[in-house]
C-alpha cells in the first residue's frame, strides 16, 4: 500500500524549515522562516501552540528524547529550549556568531550539538545549557550536525562540500567524505550507527559505511535534496527535494520505492516518527503534512523488536547492496503474547507514571536553568556594584 496523506497543518506564515515528532507521536514540532515554532497535536480537535521568542527565522527544531523539551536554532544566532506546553516558556542561550542551522539531542538527552554559518559545530550540556566545546575544521557554513545513536561520534555536513566524522571524546576529525559535487544540506546516522546518509545540492543522496569509510550507495535524483530521514527499521530512507517531491528509497534493494507529490514548491524538510508509522514534511508553501507510512507496515514492528534483541542478519542477505547494518530481513509473524489484561494495565500505568516523573524532571531542569540564569544576572549586578564602589572610594 502506498503512503497516504494523514493530516495537513496550516498556520505558518512563511516557509517551513524543520519538522520533528515527539516520542509518543502525540505532538509534532515545526520551525519556520516566520520566526515561530509551532507545536501541532496529532489528536483530533486539539489546538496548535505557536511559540514566539526568536527574533528571526527558526532554522531547526527537535524534541528531546523524552519529548518534554524542544530545542530550536535560529538566524538570530541563538538556541532556545522550550517546554512544549500551553505557556511555551523557553530559555535562550547565545550559541554562535551566525545563523544556527541545526540542533540535535544525544540519545540520552544530556548533550546538544549545534551547527552554524560561523563554520563551527558546538556541543552543549543540556541541563545547565553549558557550552562544552567547538569543532572547527569546516571552511564554510555547517548546515547539519548529528550524534551517532551511541553518542560517541558526531557527523557534520557543510557548504565546503564535505561530510566530516568526529570523535566526541577526543574531539578529533576522524574522516572527511569529499565525494559530494555540491553543498551538503543534510546528514544523519543509520539507526544501527554503522552508516551515514547525506543529501546535497548535486541532486544526490550518498550512503557511507563509517567503519570502513567507504561509499555504499549513491542515488542520483534530478533536483536538490534538502533533507532526509531514516526509517527506524533502517530499511528505508525518505528525502525532501526542491522539485516538491518526497521520495522513499528502499535501502536493501537499493532503489526508489515511491515518489510523493504533496507540496507546492520545494519540500524543505522531512522526518519519520520515532516508531516509523508516520512521517512529516514541510515546504516553502508554508504547509506541514503528515503521511501514514503504510508500506511494510506488518513488518517493521517486528524488525524493531528483533533489532532491539540484537539478532544477527539471517541467511537471506541481499547481495545486491552492501548494507550490513544489522538489519533483520526475514518477515516474522508477530508472536501471540498471550498475556492477560491485568499485566498490560499494570505496564501501562507504570509507563504513565514514568512519563509523569520525566515531565516533572524536565520542568525542574528548566526551572533550575532559569534560576541559574537569574543568579548569573544577580552576580553580574553585584560585580558591577562592587566595581562602582571601588571607583567611588578611589575618587574620594
The level of helicity is: 10-25%
> What's the structural domain tally?
2
Largest sheet: 4 strands, antiparallel
Task: State the CATH class of the largest domain.
Answer: Mainly Beta
Give a count of the beta strands, DSSP E runs of length 2 or more. 28
Spans where pLDDT lies below 50 across 5 or more residues: 300-339
**Which percent range describes the beta-strand content?**
35-45%
The third-level CATH topology of the largest domain is Methylamine Dehydrogenase, Chain H
Radius of gyration: 22 Å
Which structural class fits the helix and strand makeup?
A: alpha+beta
Q: Element order, helices and strands? A: EEEEEEEEEEEEEEEEEEEEEEEEEEEEHH
How do the strands line up in the largest sheet? Answer: 1-28-27-26
**Span between N and C termini?**
85 Å
Question: What is this structure's SSE topology?
Answer:
Layout lengths: L3 E7 L5 E6 L5 E6 L3 E6 L7 E4 L5 E6 L6 E5 L3 E5 L7 E5 L5 E6 L5 E6 L4 E5 L4 E6 L6 E6 L5 E6 L4 E5 L5 E5 L6 E6 L5 E6 L3 E6 L4 E7 L4 E6 L5 E6 L3 E6 L4 E7 L5 E6 L5 E6 L3 E6 L4 H12 L32 H55 L1
Antiparallel strand pairs: 1-28, 2-3, 3-4, 4-5, 6-7, 7-8, 8-9, 10-11, 11-12, 12-13, 14-15, 15-16, 16-17, 18-19, 19-20, 20-21, 22-23, 23-24, 24-25, 26-27, 27-28
Task: Describe the structure in your own words.
With 396 residues, the protein is of the alpha+beta class. The protein has 2 domains: 4-296, YVTN repeat-like/Quinoprotein amine dehydrogenase (Methylamine Dehydrogenase, Chain H, 7 Propeller); 353-395. Helix content is 17%, strand content 41%. The protein has helices at residues 297-308, 341-395, and strands spanning 4-10, 16-21, 27-32, 36-41, 49-52, 58-63, 70-74, 78-82, 90-94, 100-105, 111-116, 121-125, 130-135, 142-147, 153-158, 163-167, 173-177, 184-189, 195-200, 204-209, 214-220, 225-230, 236-241, 245-250, 255-261, 267-272, 278-283, 287-292. The strands form 7 sheets. It has a 4-stranded antiparallel sheet with strand order 1-28-27-26, with no helix packed on it. The radius of gyration is 22 Å and the shape is globular. The chain starts with a strand and ends with a helix. The relative contact order is 0.11.
